[in-house]
């Protein structure tokens, strides 16, 4: 498994396949000054059923891997770890951050942060968004999911996943705007009454970020965000638990041995900001994979068998 992973890493960097989950890591280094648009997608010939075929053998794990992500997060598949016990830090970005449209997601290039798992240090590289969520929260899809991608010195990747739902409670300062957009969202004019108290207010980080997402509506474009305060997200995550399992990148090359830490803490986004983000991101969620250790879904199809055959042939010289 380790050798296969190494082979995939080598193959992926050699052929410059661009992936949102991996972009900005050693798998897909960023090119200074330009935003590389992904070559894979979520529809038709570029969609998840065909990811392996887009680039064999480097993407073969997409069709043959047995620890693929995302998955349905049901109790049997993860270990619960109190987040308060985990070193998880993200630097604020007082001068703003680079916010890029990769064609397959929108991604913030971070400026420092760390996650320590079993005494191993992972450095934060970037965070990006999927819509709707990729992991299912005990069977249920959430409006969005944020992936905070970390990398260790040896190249191993760890991702903190945070679900995002649509706020039904207005942020104090933005109450008026949010309420009027709720009426628009539901296409009716009757007065909006007080939302349930439990739903939570929109995240300031997400509101700040998505206030400029319409400025990167074109794939390949980028913008500098307003100042980003990350402590809100860190505090929220630290107050919850991590659901931990070993999976894969959810984008090509679908490399495995990825440390997933899905947070039980959820963020909220206002309806207006959700609409702005949705209009730029579109749909970018890989279908749920089989539980860890089970055969790849695609192995029952010709797609998987073909990828397996090429994978064996392609990795042989490296063995
Ligand atoms: C998950 O959903 C099932 C029903 O589908 C329910 O019985 C169970 O309590 C839920 N678990 C959690 C942790 O919410
Ligand atoms: C809705 O609000 C308007 C003014 O804000 C008020 O005149 C009207 O009576 C309200 N309608 C209902 C059904 O509460
Ligand atoms: Zn991702």
UniProtKB/TrEMBL annotation:
Keywords linked to the UniProt accession: Lyase, Metal-binding, Signal, Zinc
The residues the entry assigns to the signal sequence are 1-19
Family from the record: Belongs to the alpha-carbonic anhydrase family.
Check the record and name the InterPro entries matching this protein.
Answer: Alpha_CA_prokaryot-like, CA_dom, CA_dom_sf, Carbonic_anhydrase_a-class
One matching Pfam family is Carb_anhydrase
Q: What is its EC number?
A: 4.2.1.1
Species:
Podospora fimiseda
What superkingdom heads the lineage? Eukaryota
Q: What class of enzyme is it?
A: lyase
The GO terms describing molecular function are: carbonate dehydratase activity; zinc ion binding
Residue ranges occupied by any Alpha-carbonic anhydrase domain in the UniProt entry: 38-312
Q: What is this protein called?
A: carbonic anhydrase
| SUPFAM superfamilies attached to this UniProt entry | Carbonic anhydrase
According to UniProt, the reaction catalysed is: hydrogencarbonate + H(+) = CO2 + H2O
């Amino acid at each position: 498994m380790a050798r296969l992973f190494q082979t995939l890493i080598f193959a992926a960097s050699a052929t410059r396949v661009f992936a949102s989950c991996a972009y900005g890591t050693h798998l897909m280094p960023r090119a200074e000054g330009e935003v590389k648009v992904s070559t894979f997608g979520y529809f038709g010939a570029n969609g998840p059923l065909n990811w392996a075929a887009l680039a064999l053998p480097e993407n073969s794990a997409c069709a043959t891997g047995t620890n693929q992500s995302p998955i349905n997060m049901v109790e049997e598949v993860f270990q619960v770890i109190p987040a308060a016990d985990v070193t998880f830090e993200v630097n604020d970005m007082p001068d703003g951050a680079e916010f890029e449209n990769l064609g397959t997601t929108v991604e913030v290039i971070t400026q420092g942060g760390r996650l320590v798992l079993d005494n191993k240090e992972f450095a934060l590289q970037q965070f990006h968004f999927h819509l709707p969520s990729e992991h299912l929260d005990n069977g249920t899809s959430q409006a969005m999911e944020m992936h905070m991608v970390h990398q260790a010195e040896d190249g191993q990747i760890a991702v903190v996943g945070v679900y995002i739902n649509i706020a039904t409670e207005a942020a104090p300062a933005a109450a008026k705007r949010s309420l009027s957009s709720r009426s628009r969202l539901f296409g009716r004019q009757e007065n909006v009454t007080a939302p349930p108290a439990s739903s939570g207010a929109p995240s300031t980080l997400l509101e700040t970020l998505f206030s400029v997402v319409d400025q990167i509506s074109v794939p390949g474009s980028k913008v500098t965000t307003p100042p980003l305060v990350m402590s809100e997200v860190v505090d929220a995550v630290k107050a919850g638990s991590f659901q931990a399992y070993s999976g894969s990148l959810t984008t090509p090359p679908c490399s495995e041995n990825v440390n997933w830490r899905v947070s039980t803490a959820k963020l909220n986004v206002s309806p207006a900001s959700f609409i702005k983000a949705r209009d730029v991101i579109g749909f970018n969620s890989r279908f749920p994979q089989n539980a860890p250790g089970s055969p790849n879904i695609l192995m029952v199809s010709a797609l998987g068998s073909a990828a397996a055959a090429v994978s064996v042939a392609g990795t042989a010289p490296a063995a």
